[in-house]
Specification:
Strand 9, helix 9 and strand 10 form a beta-alpha-beta unit. The protein has 11 helices and 10 strands. The strands form 3 sheets. Strands 5-4-6-9-10 form a 5-stranded parallel sheet, sandwiched between helices. 38% of the residues lie in helices and 12% in strands. The chain has 339 residues and is of the alpha/beta class.
């Protein structure tokens, strides 16, 4: 210590977690508070970590990957009723040979999805990537740290403990069983907080910065195009009515501003937009009635998933048809111009 200065004393590697589902996962969620007649639902993944069921034609000439948080994951719905699956069925009914895959993960924000796209999805070379974010981003940007937790964490004892837990779960059936029982997830009702409508025009909603969100949306568009993937942005609906399942941090005022940011980025970058927020509001005066389109104001019911799927399929059909026509061209013919 006296004769030598340790050059490693401040060395701390940072680890960025790619928040995606592990391959071959199978988890059971309790959803009796949402559907008492079918109290359990499975969330399972394929060998690449995309949610099951698999595409009807995995070798389809056009592939679409959906990314986002729990509102795209559709955790509480039966696997074949999640809207990315319904989009494939709708497009195939129109004669468009397409495969859709759902790579969304509960809790992910747009910064997490940027990692998932760059460090995972590009390896599968999809034709389109459809992204929906807003709610989780308003939540993290309402905190002092913002996106910092998604940008890396020091390689310390906490990270080492996480890896040790994963290693033990893979190698020990008993350890994995205990971990699975302790980590059981249920959609549980909670006491109602102040009505979310009170935040619609409040100071708190306007204090949440949207610029960091917008910057990452633009980065995501650029990354996708850099890998010859067409990005598609979607607005994210959020009802102002509450149920006992509505997260207390839901902020309708900030959500409206973030949806406007999505529209602005789509317009300025000439990116295809699926305005789900507008589609939901135009669906009827009872769009935000409890348990109609949403069971908690943000996560869709089966009816909400069907509405989402119709709107998304309408928006994607021209892009899918264009790519299919390119596949049909003779190898010597130039591909038609287009974004």
């Amino acid at each position: 210590r006296i004769a030598w200065t340790n050059p490693y004393r401040s060395e701390r590697e940072h680890v960025v977690r790619v928040r995606r589902h592990p391959p071959g996962q199978s988890r059971i969620y309790a959803r009796s508070s949402i559907d008492a007649s079918a109290p359990r639902v499975e969330l399972a993944t394929d060998a690449r970590g995309y949610l099951l069921p698999p595409p009807a034609n995995a070798a389809a000439p056009v592939t679409v990957v959906f990314l986002g948080g729990s509102t795209t994951e559709c955790t509480a719905l039966d696997p074949d009723r999640r809207f990315p699956v319904l989009v494939e069925s709708d497009l195939r009914a129109r004669g468009l040979d397409v495969a859709t895959r759902n790579g969304a993960v509960s809790g992910n924000n747009v910064h997490d999805t940027l990692h998932v796209l760059l460090d995972h999805v590009v390896l599968d070379a999809p034709d389109l990537v459809v992204v929906m974010h807003a709610t989780n981003d308003t939540g993290v940007l309402a905190t002092p740290l913002g996106y910092l937790p998604s940008m890396g964490e020091p390689l310390d004892a906490g990270v080492a403990a996480l890896w040790a837990k994963q290693l033990a779960s893979r190698s020990s059936f008993l350890f994995a069983l205990v971990r699975d029982r302790l980590a059981g997830v249920a959609f549980a009702a909670r006491p109602l907080a102040a009505d979310v409508a009170a935040r619609e025009h409040g100071a708190r909603a306007h204090a949440i910065p949207s610029a960091p969100f917008e910057q990452r949306l633009r980065a995501l568009v650029g990354v996708a195009r850099g890998f010859a993937i067409e990005p598609v942005l979607m607005t994210q609906p959020l009802a102002t009515t509450r149920t006992a399942l509505t997260p207390g941090w839901a902020d309708a005022g900030a959500q409206a501003r973030f949806n406007d940011a999505i529209r602005r980025v789509a317009r300025e970058t000439r990116t295809r937009l699926v305005d789900l927020d507008a589609a939901v509001r135009a669906s009827g005066p009872d769009w935000d009635a409890p348990m109609h389109l949403f069971y908690d104001g943000m996560h869709v019911t089966s009816e909400g998933a069907r509405l989402y799927a119709r709107a998304i399929a309408d928006a994607l059909a021209p892009a899918v048809a264009e790519r299919l026509s390119r596949r049909d061209l003779p190898s010597s013919a130039p591909a038609p111009a287009g974004p």
